[in-house]
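2024-03-11 09:14:02 INFO worker-7 job=invfold-0412 stage=load source=structure_tokens
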């Protein structure tokens, strides 16, 4: 089954691309810039959450297309896609969906250094996911 031809999945991949473009347009160059702006903090947290939610939605959609019910957790869904050969084995994908759980459930204690670390070192993972799904 070629995932590239599923319009719903492609539309969701474009949402991630849009959110990444927004994040990049904010031109966050240093930790102090993020720390000093609660508006920027909220915007970044939300954009990262949306990107991760979309990853989860896509994983569930692909499983449904293969007649597989979603598993107990989003991380397990990612593992299932890896076992099916749809995406490569990357523990970072599972880490990203766990990060989403952290944002959603522990919102009062989000460490800005973690957010900044994702901005500087992990945004490429969303692009990798997009490429993996489109090419898988």
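2024-03-11 09:14:09 INFO worker-7 stage=emit residues=136
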């Amino acid at each position: 089954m070629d995932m590239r031809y599923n319009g719903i999945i492609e539309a969701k991949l474009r949402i991630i691309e849009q959110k990444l473009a927004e994040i990049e347009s904010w031109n966050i160059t240093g930790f102090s810039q993020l720390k000093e702006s609660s508006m920027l903090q909220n915007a970044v947290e939300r954009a990262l959450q949306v990107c991760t939610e979309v990853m989860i939605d896509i994983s569930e959609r692909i499983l449904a297309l293969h007649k597989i019910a979603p598993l107990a957790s989003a991380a397990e869904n990612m593992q299932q896609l890896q076992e099916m050969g749809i995406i490569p084995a990357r523990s970072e994908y599972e880490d990203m969906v766990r990060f989403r759980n952290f944002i959603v459930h522990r919102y009062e204690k989000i460490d800005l250094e973690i957010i900044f670390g994702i901005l500087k070192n992990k945004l490429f993972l969303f692009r990798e996911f997009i490429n993996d799904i489109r090419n898988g």
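2024-03-11 09:14:09 INFO worker-7 stage=report msg="The radius of gyration is 15 Å."
2024-03-11 09:14:10 INFO worker-7 job finished
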